[in-house]
Specification:
442 residues; 36% helix; FAD/NAD(P)-binding domain; 3 domains; single chain; alpha/beta; 5-stranded parallel β-sheet
Length: 442
């Protein structure tokens, strides 16, 4: 017998904080708490019209929630004569207050310009460069070296797009400038030497922290409208040509190289911990965001006064008056309704899916622990399998013949299984499915 398990996101146990909110809501009339989960399955009819609701999370799920609470309640979006999206309310929308730890949504994906299997061909971030570093460093590749290569690749693509903008003229030969960048140890320094103005320099501090140091003096929603407008205008230039969206989209094209780095045995426990803690959030905010339309809708709802974005560092507590949200700037919002606008991270240990929990408790499903140099250990949430055949590996480190696991439940043991497959580029999810079929029918 052969069993293929393609389970997608499964239910996870609430955190202690989340369970506290659920219990508090059950004990107090007039409160609504929507736990983390799929927006399509969320019971949002309990969120009253015109009342404040706090949404925790500004990721992809957040956009589905705000759509359900606006268009899903009879409102609609339209465009003015200049082409800008605006919102026409139905009068049934709640007053949404949304925030996250970073206080920023993911960047909009650039308007698609890539045909069929067209991809960026990396110059710096290649499997060959990673392998060469490993050979010269006892078979190990540090996270810092890995990320430096990615940063150089994105910087190069940024400058390539900047100087290709027909609206700009440069006092140098473009081909010679790009050749200088190819041989540069510091692309930003080289760009400055060639006379590229500061406004076109790839400033990662500004990208990841666009507020800079003057954050407390800023009206955050006014800032957010300007930030979203910048993001929209850049993304409209396309995922090949845009100075930023074009560079960010490159990360989608080099995923096979990232997986090579992860699967070649080059990382120890400390380096993998850095990858999970640093690169995964970076990758999420930079390269896996929503279509431009979703960012336009977010901006329109802010302008309509229906959506308020908190500053970074949102925290929520339950009081006798209801839920209270605060941000890093000391602002405060009160609501009787709280929605977890996000999914839980993948965790075999915390799964409450009956099938997964049963196989875990029988030691058929297992996860992987890693040890750091200081002796501490950590466990990644994904279910282990043979990465070549996708056959489940049990707690005794034995393959379970005829049992295959594919996709999302392996995240952490695998990398980045949560995205929709891309045709024509030997996409990981499609290749894995092919490996399962080949193993079954060999």
């Amino acid at each position: 017998e052969q069993v293929v398990m393609a389970l997608g996101n499964a239910d996870e146990a609430n955190t202690n904080e989340e369970q506290g909110f659920a219990d508090f809501t059950a004990q107090h009339t007039g409160l609504t708490y929507v736990p983390a989960g799929h927006p399509a399955e969320a019971r949002l009819d309990t969120v009253p019209d015109n009342e404040p609701v706090i949404l925790r999370g500004l990721g992809l799920n957040f956009f589905d929630y705000i759509a359900k609470l606006t268009v899903g309640r009879g409102g609609h979006f339209a465009r003015d004569r200049a082409g800008e999206l605006y919102y026409v309310p139905s009068g049934k929308e709640p007053k949404m207050i949304a925030g996250s730890r970073k206080g920023l949504p993911m960047h909009a994906r650039g308007l698609n310009q890539k045909k069929d299997a067209e991809s960026h061909r990396p110059i710096f971030f290649t499997a060959g460069n990673i392998d060469r570093f490993a050979r010269e460093n006892n078979g190990k590749v540090t996270y810092d070296f890995f990320f430096n290569l990615i940063e150089k690749e994105m910087n190069y693509k940024h400058y390539q797009n900047v100087i290709s903008d027909f609206g700009l003229t440069w006092p140098f030969n473009a081909a010679e400038f790009l050749e200088a960048l190819r041989h540069s140890a510091n692309l930003n320094a080289t760009a400055r030497e060639w006379g590229v103005p500061d406004e076109y320099i790839m400033n990662w501090d500004r990208i990841l922290n666009p507020l800079g140091e003057s954050a407390e003096a800023v009206d955050y929603n006014e800032f957010m409208v300007k930030y979203l407008t910048w993001d929209i205008n850049d993304a409209l230039k396309g995922n090949v040509d845009a100075p930023y969206a074009g560079a960010f989209d490159m990360l989608r094209d080099v995923r096979p190289v990232i997986r090579h780095y992860l699967d070649a045995g080059y990382l120890d426990g400390d380096e993998y911990a850095q990858f999970l803690a640093k690169f995964n959030p970076f990758n999420s905010i930079i390269s896996v965001g929503p279509p431009i339309l979703r960012i336009e809708q977010m901006r329109a709802l802010i302008k309509a006064g229906i959506l308020t974005i908190t500053g970074p560092g949102i925290k929520v507590v339950a009081t006798e008056e209801g839920f209270v949200a605060t941000d890093a700037f000391g602002h405060e919002w009160h609501a009787q309704n709280l929605v977890e606008a996000r999914l839980h991270s993948i965790s075999l240990a915390e799964s409450i899916n009956p099938l997964i929990a049963n196989l875990r408790d029988r030691d058929i499903f297992s996860d992987q622990s890693y040890q750091k140099a200081d002796g501490s250990t950590y466990t990644v949430g994904g279910i282990r399998m043979n990465k070549a055949t996708l056959t489940v590996v049990n707690k005794a480190d034995k393959e379970v013949a005829g049992l295959y696991i594919w996709g999302v439940p392996t995240e952490g043991w695998s990398w980045f299984t949560t995205f929709a497959p891309r045709p024509g580029v030997r996409d990981k999810n499609l290749v894995d499915a092919e490996h399962i079929a080949e193993t079954i029918f060999e």
